[in-house]
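Reviewer comment 2.1 asked that we show a complete input and output for one of the modelled complexes. We chose the S-adenosylmethionine case, as it is the one discussed in the main text.
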Amino acid sequence: MPSFLAICPKGLSEVLEKEIQGLGIPSTQKIAAGVFFDTNWEGCYKVNLHSRIASRVVKPVLDFPAYNGDDIYNNVLQHDFTKYISPDQTLKVDAAVKECAIHDQRFLAMKVKDAIVDQFREKYGRRPDVDNQRPALRIIIQGRKNEFHLSVDTSGDALYMRGYRLEAGDAPLKENLAAALLAMAEWDKQSPVIDPLCGSGTILIEAAMMAMNIAPGSLRNRFGFMSMIGFEKDKWEAVVEEAISQEKTELPYLFYGSDIDRKVLKMAKDNARRAGVDHVIEFKPGPVATCEPQVPAGLVVTNPPYGVRLGDEENVRDIYKDLSYTLKNRFKGWNAWILSGNKDLITDLKLKATRRHFTYNGPIECRFLKYEMF
Ligand SMILES: C[S@@+](CC[C@H](N)C(=O)[O-])C[C@H]1O[C@@H](n2cnc3c(N)ncnc32)[C@H](O)[C@@H]1O
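Response of the prediction step:
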């Protein structure tokens, strides 16, 4: 069994695999929504701190078929969970099932929890309590077609919760999706990025953090692995020290964001300040219809509204027309990448895409399309 699994939204495992290999972990295997990788705990700390694309990192410990509660209970007993926490700490079980004889996920979670706490009772005469908010040990069990996969979480809060985004406007992108878009666009990390519908600034803040080598986990003070028995604090501190030593403080170019909504731009500025990148991003209010490049060359990466709410589509259609007009007339020679969850609106751009990726923004299937403006 591979030692760890980095989980990501569907469509992102290719760029996630490259990212993990880039962290010096060559032994990887990608699946639809994640990447298995072989490393030691220090490598796990490193991926948790540095992965911009993973949603979380887990340690797979059991795979088994099961058709009833006893099957679950007996299989869970095969792994020793007392090695992760003491009986005075807390735990939580997250369960999900699809097309299984066991269809109640609360029942599944209860059976897993029962087996684990019975191991503690037998060894210590007492058991960990359940904490649904901030458990020391989070167990994840997923069943599909009666095959179950059980893992131990190492991340705690999801890794896209970097800590800089305390406020956001409507439909913000998750931070790891924004980072994955920049990776899929093969942005060179050496040229300006413009987002003319920047909302709370996620794409630009992620780009600036990448360019300045600021580790995405550097603002967090807690990861799941820290509360486990055997946490090697000195190794973690060395991983953090190394990351800090590689941070840049300045860049020879800037990032540019605009949005029609002044309130959301204020949030973007505050988010950028918390991320430590406000000095390299210029935010300016304005409609996409009048947006102009501030520099001769760079990359446009943007995420216009999709018009998913009833009645929104007509308003949103005009935004796509304005975006198309601006790109055709003012961004000649530039490449633009657009993420949209609305096929019809994309057609309205009347531009020919030269590359395409499919991914998910939450539950919405999206296209991420490249346009070369001549
Ligand atoms: C889907 S949101 C972008 C979210 C952003 N990527 C984030 O992570 O926060 C679309 C943004 O387009 C902006 N917008 C709508 N119409 C616009 C227009 N005509 N010109 C410029 N921005 C516009 C909205 O204010 C909103 O912030």
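The chain has two domains: 4-153, 175-213+248-372. We note this here for comparison with the apo prediction described in Section 3.2.
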